[in-house]
Amino acid sequence: MSTQPDSVPAMTRQQKEYTSTRSGFSAYRHMTVGESSLAFLVYYELVNFCFSNVAGLAGYGLRALFYRKLFERCGKRPAIGKGVLLRNPAQVQIGDKLLLDDYAVLDAHDNGKIKIGGYVSIGRYTTVAAKGGRVVLKNGVNIGSYCRIATHSKIEIGESTLVAAYCYIGPGNHQQGDQETPLIARDMDIKGGVKIGKHCWLGTRVTVLDGVTIGDRAIIAAHSFVKDDVPAGAVVAGIPAKILRYQDG
To answer: What's the structural domain count of the chain?
Structure first.
Protein backbone atom coordinates (compact mmCIF):
# COMPACT_ATOMS: atom_id res chain seq x y z
CA MET A 1 0.00 0.00 0.00
CA SER A 2 1.37 3.43 -0.97
CA THR A 3 2.34 5.82 1.83
CA GLN A 4 2.39 8.84 -0.50
CA PRO A 5 -0.30 11.51 0.12
CA ASP A 6 -2.90 12.14 -2.60
CA SER A 7 -2.09 15.87 -2.45
CA VAL A 8 0.62 18.07 -0.97
CA PRO A 9 -0.08 18.48 2.78
CA ALA A 10 0.21 21.67 4.82
CA MET A 11 3.82 22.18 5.92
CA THR A 12 6.10 24.62 7.65
CA ARG A 13 8.08 27.08 5.55
CA GLN A 14 11.23 25.01 6.02
CA GLN A 15 9.50 21.81 4.91
CA LYS A 16 8.24 23.59 1.79
CA GLU A 17 11.72 24.89 1.06
CA TYR A 18 13.36 21.46 1.14
CA THR A 19 10.58 19.65 -0.73
CA SER A 20 10.25 22.27 -3.47
CA THR A 21 10.91 21.74 -7.16
CA ARG A 22 14.60 22.57 -6.81
CA SER A 23 17.00 19.69 -7.43
CA GLY A 24 18.14 17.47 -4.59
CA PHE A 25 21.69 18.81 -5.00
CA SER A 26 20.51 22.40 -4.83
CA ALA A 27 18.41 21.74 -1.74
CA TYR A 28 21.32 19.98 -0.02
CA ARG A 29 23.75 22.78 -0.89
CA HIS A 30 21.38 25.42 0.45
CA MET A 31 20.83 23.46 3.65
CA THR A 32 24.50 22.78 4.38
CA VAL A 33 26.51 25.79 3.16
CA GLY A 34 23.87 28.37 2.22
CA GLU A 35 25.13 30.91 -0.29
CA SER A 36 28.76 29.80 -0.09
CA SER A 37 30.65 28.85 -3.23
CA LEU A 38 30.82 25.44 -4.89
CA ALA A 39 34.49 25.23 -3.89
CA PHE A 40 33.49 25.78 -0.25
CA LEU A 41 30.89 22.99 -0.54
CA VAL A 42 33.54 20.61 -1.90
CA TYR A 43 35.86 21.43 1.00
CA TYR A 44 32.98 21.03 3.47
CA GLU A 45 32.20 17.59 2.05
CA LEU A 46 35.81 16.45 2.10
CA VAL A 47 36.56 17.42 5.69
CA ASN A 48 33.29 15.91 6.92
CA PHE A 49 33.85 12.68 5.01
CA CYS A 50 37.45 12.33 6.15
CA PHE A 51 37.41 13.62 9.72
CA SER A 52 33.89 13.83 11.19
CA ASN A 53 33.94 10.41 12.85
CA VAL A 54 37.64 10.00 13.60
CA ALA A 55 37.88 9.01 17.27
CA GLY A 56 40.26 10.02 20.03
CA LEU A 57 43.07 12.55 20.08
CA ALA A 58 43.69 12.16 16.35
CA GLY A 59 40.10 13.17 15.60
CA TYR A 60 40.25 16.26 17.78
CA GLY A 61 43.56 17.27 16.24
CA LEU A 62 42.45 16.79 12.65
CA ARG A 63 39.15 18.61 13.14
CA ALA A 64 40.90 21.52 14.90
CA LEU A 65 43.21 21.82 11.90
CA PHE A 66 40.78 21.41 9.01
CA TYR A 67 37.43 22.62 10.39
CA ARG A 68 38.74 26.07 11.27
CA LYS A 69 38.60 27.06 7.59
CA LEU A 70 34.85 26.40 7.55
CA PHE A 71 34.04 29.12 10.10
CA GLU A 72 33.74 32.85 9.51
CA ARG A 73 36.11 33.21 12.44
CA CYS A 74 37.83 30.53 14.52
CA GLY A 75 39.78 31.20 17.71
CA LYS A 76 42.65 29.25 19.18
CA ARG A 77 42.54 25.52 19.92
CA PRO A 78 38.94 24.51 19.23
CA ALA A 79 37.95 21.08 20.58
CA ILE A 80 35.37 19.71 18.14
CA GLY A 81 33.87 16.33 18.99
CA LYS A 82 32.94 13.38 16.82
CA GLY A 83 29.88 13.64 14.57
CA VAL A 84 29.40 17.39 15.04
CA LEU A 85 27.01 18.83 12.42
CA LEU A 86 27.75 22.28 10.99
CA ARG A 87 25.22 23.99 8.74
CA ASN A 88 26.27 27.16 6.96
CA PRO A 89 29.44 27.39 9.10
CA ALA A 90 30.61 30.43 7.12
CA GLN A 91 28.03 32.35 9.20
CA VAL A 92 29.48 31.09 12.51
CA GLN A 93 32.17 32.75 14.64
CA ILE A 94 33.83 30.86 17.48
CA GLY A 95 36.21 32.17 20.13
CA ASP A 96 39.26 30.64 21.78
CA LYS A 97 39.14 27.14 23.25
CA LEU A 98 35.58 26.25 22.36
CA LEU A 99 34.50 22.79 23.51
CA LEU A 100 31.87 21.45 21.11
CA ASP A 101 31.03 17.96 22.29
CA ASP A 102 30.10 14.90 20.22
CA TYR A 103 27.06 15.17 17.90
CA ALA A 104 26.33 18.81 18.73
CA VAL A 105 24.79 20.98 15.98
CA LEU A 106 25.54 24.57 14.96
CA ASP A 107 22.92 25.59 12.37
CA ALA A 108 22.98 29.09 10.85
CA HIS A 109 20.52 28.65 8.01
CA ASP A 110 18.59 31.35 6.13
CA ASN A 111 21.53 33.74 6.63
CA GLY A 112 21.41 33.38 10.40
CA LYS A 113 24.44 34.25 12.51
CA ILE A 114 25.98 32.42 15.45
CA LYS A 115 28.68 34.13 17.53
CA ILE A 116 30.33 32.12 20.30
CA GLY A 117 32.78 33.68 22.72
CA GLY A 118 35.90 32.21 24.28
CA TYR A 119 36.01 29.29 26.72
CA VAL A 120 32.44 28.22 25.87
CA SER A 121 31.32 24.60 26.35
CA ILE A 122 28.42 23.10 24.35
CA GLY A 123 27.30 19.62 25.40
CA ARG A 124 26.73 16.56 23.25
CA TYR A 125 23.56 16.38 21.16
CA THR A 126 22.83 20.06 21.83
CA THR A 127 21.52 22.19 18.94
CA VAL A 128 22.21 25.91 18.51
CA ALA A 129 20.14 27.21 15.58
CA ALA A 130 19.83 30.71 14.16
CA LYS A 131 16.93 30.56 11.69
CA GLY A 132 17.57 33.84 9.93
CA GLY A 133 18.25 35.38 13.35
CA ARG A 134 21.26 35.68 15.62
CA VAL A 135 22.54 33.64 18.57
CA VAL A 136 25.25 35.10 20.80
CA LEU A 137 26.92 33.05 23.54
CA LYS A 138 29.25 35.23 25.61
CA ASN A 139 32.57 34.17 27.13
CA GLY A 140 32.46 31.23 29.53
CA VAL A 141 28.90 30.08 28.79
CA ASN A 142 28.33 26.40 29.57
CA ILE A 143 25.46 24.62 27.78
CA GLY A 144 24.61 21.08 28.91
CA SER A 145 23.72 18.06 26.79
CA TYR A 146 20.50 17.62 24.78
CA CYS A 147 19.57 21.32 24.84
CA ARG A 148 17.94 23.28 22.03
CA ILE A 149 18.69 26.99 21.60
CA ALA A 150 16.87 28.29 18.53
CA THR A 151 15.55 31.62 17.29
CA HIS A 152 14.05 33.48 14.34
CA SER A 153 15.19 36.77 15.90
CA LYS A 154 17.88 36.87 18.62
CA ILE A 155 19.11 34.93 21.64
CA GLU A 156 21.88 36.30 23.82
CA ILE A 157 23.29 34.39 26.80
CA GLY A 158 25.58 36.33 29.10
CA GLU A 159 29.04 35.59 30.40
CA SER A 160 29.59 32.48 32.53
CA THR A 161 25.93 31.47 32.55
CA LEU A 162 25.23 27.78 33.17
CA VAL A 163 22.45 26.02 31.25
CA ALA A 164 21.78 22.47 32.46
CA ALA A 165 20.81 19.51 30.26
CA TYR A 166 17.57 19.29 28.28
CA CYS A 167 16.80 23.03 28.33
CA TYR A 168 14.83 24.68 25.51
CA ILE A 169 15.49 28.38 24.92
CA GLY A 170 13.67 30.53 22.39
CA PRO A 171 10.67 28.53 21.19
CA GLY A 172 7.96 30.65 19.59
CA ASN A 173 4.34 30.05 18.67
CA HIS A 174 2.68 29.93 15.30
CA GLN A 175 0.35 32.87 14.73
CA GLN A 176 -3.18 32.29 15.96
CA GLY A 177 -5.29 34.77 13.97
CA ASP A 178 -5.58 33.11 10.56
CA GLN A 179 -8.01 30.24 11.08
CA GLU A 180 -8.17 29.47 7.34
CA THR A 181 -4.52 28.35 7.27
CA PRO A 182 -3.54 25.12 9.06
CA LEU A 183 -1.51 25.86 12.19
CA ILE A 184 1.63 24.16 10.86
CA ALA A 185 1.72 26.48 7.82
CA ARG A 186 1.21 29.77 9.68
CA ASP A 187 4.05 32.24 10.15
CA MET A 188 5.81 32.39 13.50
CA ASP A 189 4.76 34.96 16.09
CA ILE A 190 8.09 36.70 16.71
CA LYS A 191 8.42 38.54 20.04
CA GLY A 192 11.94 39.91 19.93
CA GLY A 193 14.07 37.05 21.14
CA VAL A 194 15.55 36.01 24.50
CA LYS A 195 18.19 37.78 26.58
CA ILE A 196 19.78 35.99 29.53
CA GLY A 197 22.21 37.90 31.73
CA LYS A 198 25.59 36.90 33.10
CA HIS A 199 26.24 34.43 35.92
CA CYS A 200 22.75 32.88 35.68
CA TRP A 201 21.87 29.25 36.29
CA LEU A 202 19.11 27.42 34.44
CA GLY A 203 18.29 24.02 35.91
CA THR A 204 17.56 20.91 33.90
CA ARG A 205 14.55 20.88 31.53
CA VAL A 206 13.88 24.62 31.81
CA THR A 207 11.93 26.21 28.93
CA VAL A 208 12.40 29.93 28.20
CA LEU A 209 9.91 31.38 25.70
CA ASP A 210 10.60 33.96 23.01
CA GLY A 211 10.35 37.52 24.29
CA VAL A 212 11.75 36.83 27.79
CA THR A 213 14.59 38.73 29.48
CA ILE A 214 16.38 37.14 32.46
CA GLY A 215 18.52 39.42 34.61
CA ASP A 216 22.06 38.83 35.86
CA ARG A 217 22.60 36.17 38.55
CA ALA A 218 19.07 34.80 38.28
CA ILE A 219 18.44 31.14 39.13
CA ILE A 220 15.73 29.18 37.31
CA ALA A 221 14.73 25.97 39.08
CA ALA A 222 14.61 22.66 37.21
CA HIS A 223 11.54 21.97 35.04
CA SER A 224 10.40 25.62 35.15
CA PHE A 225 8.44 27.22 32.30
CA VAL A 226 9.52 30.85 31.90
CA LYS A 227 7.11 33.06 29.97
CA ASP A 228 7.68 36.39 31.77
CA ASP A 229 10.77 38.47 32.48
CA VAL A 230 12.90 37.49 35.50
CA PRO A 231 14.58 40.27 37.51
CA ALA A 232 18.29 40.23 38.33
CA GLY A 233 19.14 38.04 41.31
CA ALA A 234 15.73 36.38 41.44
CA VAL A 235 15.18 32.70 42.20
CA VAL A 236 12.15 31.41 40.27
CA ALA A 237 10.37 28.08 39.89
CA GLY A 238 7.17 26.57 38.57
CA ILE A 239 4.87 26.28 35.56
CA PRO A 240 4.67 29.15 34.88
CA ALA A 241 7.73 30.30 36.80
CA LYS A 242 7.13 32.58 39.81
CA ILE A 243 9.59 34.46 42.00
CA LEU A 244 10.41 32.57 45.21
CA ARG A 245 12.98 34.95 46.64
CA TYR A 246 16.00 37.07 45.79
CA GLN A 247 19.56 35.90 46.35
CA ASP A 248 20.42 39.12 48.17
CA GLY A 249 17.32 38.95 50.36
So the answer is: 1
Residue 14 lies inside a defined structural domain of this protein: no
The CB-side HSE value for 88 (13 A sphere, CA atoms) comes to 20
**So what's the pLDDT on residue 51?**
97
Sequential DSSP letters for 127-154: EEEESSSEEEE-TT-EE-TT-EEEESSE
- The 10 Å Cβ neighbour count of residue 74 is 20
In a domain, 66, yes or no: yes
- In one-letter notation, the amino acid at residue 38 is L
Overall residue count recorded for the chain in this entry: 249
Q: Is the peptide bond before 231 cis (omega within 30 degrees of 0)?
A: no
Segment 32-64, tens digit of pLDDT: 998 889 999 999 999 999 999 999 999 999 999
3-state secondary structure of 190: coil
Domain with 168 in it: 26-246
For residue 109, give the nearest of 221, 219, 34 by alpha carbon: 34
> Domain holding 232: CATH number?
2.160.10.10
In-domain check, residue 7:
no
Determine contact, residues 168/148, Cβ cutoff 8 Å.
yes
